[in-house]
Amino acid sequence: MKLPYAEPFKIKMVETIKTTTREEREEWIKEAQFNLFKLDSDKVFVDLLTDSGTGAMSDKQWAEVMTGDESYAGSRSFTTLKNTVKELLGFEYFLPTHQGRAAENVLFSAMIKEGDVVPGNSHFDTTKGHIEFRKARAIDCTIDEAFDTKAIHPFKGNLDLEKLDTVLKANPKERIPFTLITITNNTAGGQPVSMQNIREVSELCSKYEVPVFFDIARFAENAYFIKTREEGYANKSIKDIVKEIFTYGEGATMSSKKDGLVNIGGFIGLKNEELYRKATTFNIMFEGFITYGGMAGRDMAALAQGLREATTFEFLESRIGQVKYLGEKLLEYGVPVQEPFGGHAIFVDAKRFLPHLPQNEFPAQTLGIELYIESGVRGVEIGTLLADRDPETRQNRYPDLELLRLAIPRRTYTQNHMDYIAAALKNVYDRRNEITQGFEIEYEAPIMRHFTVELKRKETVSLNVLA
Known about the structure:
alpha/beta; Aspartate Aminotransferase, domain 1; 2 domains; five-stranded mixed β-sheet; 14 strands; about 40% helix; globular
C-alpha cells in the first residue's frame, strides 16, 4: 500500500480560535460596513484574507529571533540577511524595508516619473497604486488564457510577447523605466511564469534597452511550478531554479511576508550600483537607515532563515499541496475556480458562481460576504473593487476576472480546516440563486479603495447588465 502524504513538520504550539454564530456574523459584517478588512480578527474563524505575514515561523526562525542584533547601524543580522539574499538570488546590492509596498515606494521613487509606462503581467493593487500615484501608467500584458478560469495552461502568469512588443515599440525607452514580472501572478490567480517566458521577456526587453525587474513575493512557489511543470527542470533543485530566474533581471522588490516566511519585512535587490545609491536616499527618508530599513534585527535574522526554508522542495510540496487539496474539494462540489490551482490561494470565479449579478454590484465582494456569514471564513475580493477607478475618467474599471481569493497562510491550518472551508462554500453555492442583491459604495478613498471602502446592500433586484 502506498503511504499517504503527511506534512513534513509537527505542531509545537497552538492558538485558540473563536467559534461564532451566524447571527453574530450578520451583525458584525453590517457594523463593518460590509468591508471584510474592517472585521476584528477575533470575529473570524478561518482567516484567508491574505497569506501575507499570517504564517507560522519555524523553531529555527524563532531561535534566530532570540539572537537578533538590534544595532542601528551595521547590524550582524543585516549582514546575514544581505549575504543570504546574494547567495540565493544573486543580487549584489540590498536594501531592507518594512514590507513589500515600502520596497515599491522606495524603488519607484527612484525610477518612475510622470508620464511613464510600466508593462507587466497583471500588476497587483499596491504596485498599480504606486505607479498611478506617480501619474504613470501600468499596462497589463498577461496572456489571454489567464482570463479564462476553465482553460488549462501550466503558466497562466506568462506575459504575451506580442502585447509587450507593442508597448515597447509604441513608447520611447526613456518612458519605460522597466518591465515588471510578478512571480507568481497574484491578480490572475496565483499563476506561475515559466522560465522560458522569463528568458524571452528578458531578450525582448534587451532589444529595446529596457531593464527587467521582478515582484518576487512568491518567487519560491514560482520555482516549484517550474520544477514540476516545465520541461528540463524536473531534476534541478529549487535553489538552482531561483538562481537562474534572477539572471534575467536587474532587480526585484520583495514582500518577505510571503515566501520569506516572516510576519513583517521586505527588501529591494539590485545589480546596479548607481541605482542602489539613488534608492538609498529614499530608503533613509521613508524607511530607516540602510542596515535596518524599518525592520528589527530579530526580524531580519528570522527572514534569512525563512528564505532558506522556503527554497526547499519539501516545504513547497507541503504548502502547495494543501492549496491543491482545497481546490480539488471545491471542484468536487462543483464550485467554479481558477484552474489550474495557483500556489498560495484558491481563486473562486464569482462571474460563474453568481452570473446573475452585474460587476457594478461587486459579485466577488458579495460572495466573500456570503461566505463569511455562512461560516466565519474570511477571504478577499480580487475584482472590481480592487481594480479601482480609471485615474483619468474616474469610471469603474471592470476586470476580466472577478475573483474571491482564499489565501492559505503557510504552516497554519490543518486539512480539517480545508474541509470546513470547502463545505462552507458548497453551502453558499447550493443557495446561489437566492443571492439576488449585490452592493453599492457609500464611501471610497481616491486610490486603493478596497482597503477602506464602505458599502451598503442594493435595494433593488439586480439586472444582468453593466451600468
